[in-house]
Design brief:
The chain contains two helices and seven strands; from the N terminus they run αββββββαβ. It is mainly β and 146 residues long. The protein has a single domain, classed as Immunoglobulin-like (Sandwich), CATH 2.60.40.10. A four-stranded antiparallel β-sheet has the order 4-3-6-7, with no helix packed on it. A three-stranded antiparallel β-sheet has the order 1-2-5, with no helix packed on it. A hairpin with a 2-residue loop joins strand 3 and strand 4. The longest helix has 15 residues. It is rod-shaped. The model has no long low-confidence stretch (mean pLDDT 85).
C-alpha cells in the first residue's frame, strides 16, 4: 500500500512540473557572437629572395603560426597546377622546371585556408574559411640542359 501511494504521489508531482518543449513550427533565431579574428603569420625561405631561380629544382619551406584559430590546409599553385597540398603548419615542397609553361617568370601562389572564428554553424563545423594569399615571382629561365 505504501509503495502504491508513493508511486502515485511521485507521478502526480512529476506531471505538475513544467517542461521544455520544441516545436518544429517555430523559428528559433540565434545571433552568433564572434570571437577575436585569427592572427596568422607565414614565413617562407622565399621571403628575402628576389625572383628565385628554379634551375634544376627549388625547395620552398614554409611555417605558419596562427593564434585564435585553426589552419585547415595549404594549397600551392604554379601555372594553374597544384604542386603542394597539406594540412600541416610547417612543411616543404619542390618546384621543378617542367611545372611551368613559361620560359621566364611565373608566379607561385600559396593559399592558406584557416578558420574565421565567427562562431556560425559553418565555422564550428569547419566549413567556413578565410584565405591568406601569398605570391612569389619564380624565375624559370635558367633551366639546366640535360
Amino acid at each position: 500500500m505504501r509503495k502504491t501511494t508513493l508511486v502515485k504521489v511521485t507521478l502526480t508531482a512529476l506531471s505538475l512540473l513544467s517542461g521544455c518543449f520544441y516545436s518544429d513550427s517555430e523559428i528559433y533565431k540565434v545571433v552568433p557572437v564572434a570571437d577575436d579574428p585569427p592572427e596568422i603569420s607565414v614565413v617562407t625561405n622565399l621571403d628575402t629572395l628576389y625572383n628565385p631561380s628554379v634551375n634544376d629544382s627549388l625547395e620552398v619551406i614554409y611555417e605558419v603560426s596562427i593564434e585564435n584559430g585553426d589552419l585547415y590546409f595549404v594549397d600551392a599553385v604554379v601555372a594553374d597546377q597544384t604542386i603542394h597540398f597539406s594540412d600541416t603548419t610547417h612543411g616543404s615542397f619542390w618546384i621543378y622546371p617542367d611545372q611551368s609553361d613559361e620560359t621566364e617568370l611565373d608566379t607561385l601562389y600559396m593559399d592558406f585556408y584557416h578558420s574565421t572564428n565567427s562562431n556560425s554553424l559553418a565555422d564550428i563545423a569547419g566549413y567556413e574559411a578565410l584565405i591568406t594569399n601569398l605570391k612569389y615571382a619564380i624565375d624559370f629561365s635558367q633551366e639546366v640542359s640535360k
